[in-house]
Amino acid sequence: MFDNLSDKLDKALHVLKGHGSITEVNVAETLKEVRRALLDADVNFKTAKDFANRVKEKALGENVLTNLQPGQLLVKIVKDELTELMGGDTEGINLGGSPSIILMSGLQGSGKTTFAGKLANFLKSKKSKNPLLVACDVYRPAAIDQLQIIGEQIGVEVYSEEGNTDPVAIAVNAVAHARQNGYNVVIVDTAGRLAIDEQMMTEIANIHKAIQPQETLFVVDSMTGQDAVNTAKAFNDRLNFEGVVLTKLDGDTRGGAAISIKSVVDKPIKFIGTGEKMDAIDVFHPSRMADRILGMGDVVSLVERAQEQFDEEEARKLQKKIAKNQFGFDDFLKQIQQVKKMGSMKDLIGMIPGAGKMMKGMDIDDDAFKYIEAIIHSMTPNERTKPASINPNRKKRIAKGSGTSVQQVNQLLKQFNQMSKMMKMMQGGGGRKMMQMMGNMK
Length: 442
What we know:
- By secondary structure, the chain is of the alpha/beta class.
- It folds into three domains: 3-85, Four Helix Bundle (Hemerythrin (Met), subunit A) (Up-down Bundle), CATH 1.20.120; 100-296, Rossmann fold; 303-440, Signal recognition particle, SRP54 subunit, M-domain (434 Repressor (Amino-terminal Domain)), CATH 1.10.260.
- It is 57% helix and 9% strand.
- The protein has 21 helices and eight strands.
- The protein has an eight-stranded mixed β-sheet, with helices on both faces.
- A hairpin with a 7-residue loop joins β7 and β8 (281-283).
- The longest helix is centred in the last third of the chain and has 23 residues, at 406-428.
- The chain is flat.
- The protein starts with a helix and ends with a helix.
């Protein structure tokens, strides 16, 4: 996401490189390109124009008696303004009430039902909540079946009433069911509707009035760009929702909706959907997103994801093995499994500062570890424990068994040895040697 915008902003901000100071002429030239980049990303025209004017005002009013070069200073101002444009502070979800009631709204095909499942999974696994999903889409064929399949997948109960075609009654009954059965969060999935469909808009307004939700979330398909922003405004005028959810941000999207929706609707983006899996959901952090748009990565999110997969007991065992020089391929395989649980490789690499630019044009496959896993699975238990025992004949057998080449087996063994040495150095505090070795690694 935002690949094209990131490239164009990078080129625009390069205009100031080499200049000794910020002047009206060079800042105007830079911001013309910045405004063009935002418009190409499908950002609302007025939003893009106001953004460029605010940046210009701050840049010219800034005292440049700092250690920053003019280019660096403008990047900082653009980053701060982008953060502010997307909402400034991170807005959490309101889980007050007993139970907390969350009403989902949005257009057909926006990914609302899938997101309802993702949100239930997020609240269950990250917030230790006991959620109940409610199927109130009585119009779309198989909508209830879809929600029930999702519920089974994540281990969350789905409330539905066969034969009842009144969504308001279903929602009211579901809240009563939640109170009686100890559910502390109720997520109500409603039918997708058009803002111009008066009957459907009245219906969701009636559901809202009947159950009095703590949170009404408007789900937007970010790939619809500026249309999504206009639709959100129409819905907000009627529902006065608390927050926005942007789905499909992992697709080939220009990102304009994410940047301009807050300024047009004046409601925060609370969550983003970043893939098809049930754990592909992130709390929206405006400052982190601004960093990513400007190619600065998102180290905080990367560390948070790593911590979620961190097992203290396993880490202690691993530390002992490294100290005794017993780190083997089975341990390496466990590390790979943990990395895979953190999300898609493309997403993870995008969080590393500068890595996105370095990897530009490269096709990063989510199955990047597939051949490594195949090679390890083709080894005998003894070979995994004692990699030094793998001689040329064994390499041929492993390559044949894994559908790879001897060259790939050699490459993996070399990388594994380098990694083992680095781990040993980290244990022994050999920082300088380790840095030197990292520099020599591909």
